[in-house]
């Protein structure tokens, strides 16, 4: 076959520590590759895997969206449960495509607790 | 010469339409230019356009017609391109912008992402572009949701040519006459579509 029939280069984002609850606590967990004038073409990403680790934050939910907190965050996927002091790994997700940086935030955090999050994505384009 | 002609593919291959020193007849609409290839190179697959220009495409909506300026070639050059979309829209091709490509009597055949399964060599998408006479495209989003982009990937060859006609230093009127009389080989390269009845 001349060309691959499956687009996408699989890469990971950094481990991001979510320290504040709610939309206001959202942090960028994956940045779309953009280098104006040097990168050819428009890039997008599909989320393949989400790795969560709950640092005594209590049983809660983590939401994933994109956009800027100040204008509201479109949620890309249903909320993912994060169990107190345990890791949760989500894969086989719907291949939601995002053209903007992906952000995440916990619905709530028990006092002093945080959640580590890391994404694996396919970069398309 | 050679068994070189456009729309040719073997399994896993995309052949150049002409090689060094081969004569080509460039057809652009009703015009024909006789030229000789003096350089060629392969062009790796690259993203040649986002038809939506970064704005996305609304649900169940066709886009406007957009020129693919990134497929234009320099003066005296033609490009040979195959292409496919990486976003789930149907693509209509025009070449040049006023002439529908893949035109049947009752249908202009669109191309979508399935082309990679149904025609893995992309031979049926092959087009040639003479100088800055680039093609144009429209995208049709049939989904109930908006598409963030409609991007096309192109792969092909770049051919630099010299003029066999006129009185330039590469002019060869005897060869041109021989080509026109069918006594010398020449690969015809169609660098535009043609209107029905034209």
List the helices and strands and how they pair.
The complex is a heterodimer of chains A (125) and B (198).
Chain A: E1 9-12, E2 16-18, E3 27-30, E4 44-55, E5 60-66, E6 80-82, E7 87-91, E8 97-98, E9 102-106, E10 114-124
Antiparallel strand pairs in A: 1-10, 2-10, 3-9, 4-7, 4-8, 4-10, 5-6, 5-9
Chain B: E1 23-28, E2 31-50, E3 61-62, E4 66-67, E5 77-85, E6 90-94, H1 115-118, E7 127-130, E8 136-141, E9 151-163, H2 173-180, E10 187-190
Parallel strand pairs in B: 1-10
Antiparallel strand pairs in B: 1-2, 2-9, 3-8, 4-8, 5-7, 5-9, 6-8
Task: Explain what the structure shows.
The complex is a heterodimer of chains A (125) and B (198). With 125 residues, chain A is mainly beta. Chain A is built from no helices and ten strands. In chain A, the strands form two sheets. In chain A, strands 1, 2, 4, 7, 8 and 10 form a six-stranded antiparallel β-sheet that branches. In chain A, strands 3-9-5-6 form a four-stranded antiparallel β-sheet, with no helix packed on it. Chain A starts with 8 loop residues before the first strand and ends with a strand. Chain B is mainly beta and 198 residues long. Chain B has helices at 115-118, 173-180; strands at 23-28, 31-50, 61-62, 66-67, 77-85, 90-94, 127-130, 136-141, 151-163, 187-190. In chain B, the strands form two sheets. Chain B has a six-stranded mixed β-sheet, with no helix packed on it. In chain B, strands 3, 4, 6 and 8 form a four-stranded antiparallel β-sheet that branches. Chain B is elongated. The two termini of chain B are 31 Å apart. The model of chain B has no long low-confidence stretch (mean pLDDT 94). The chains are: A mainly beta (125), B mainly beta (198). Chain A binds chain B through residues 1-3, 5, 7, 40-42, 44, 97-99, 124-125, and chain B through 9, 12-14, 45-47, 50, 54, 56, 84, 86, 116-117, 120-122, 148-149, 151, 155.
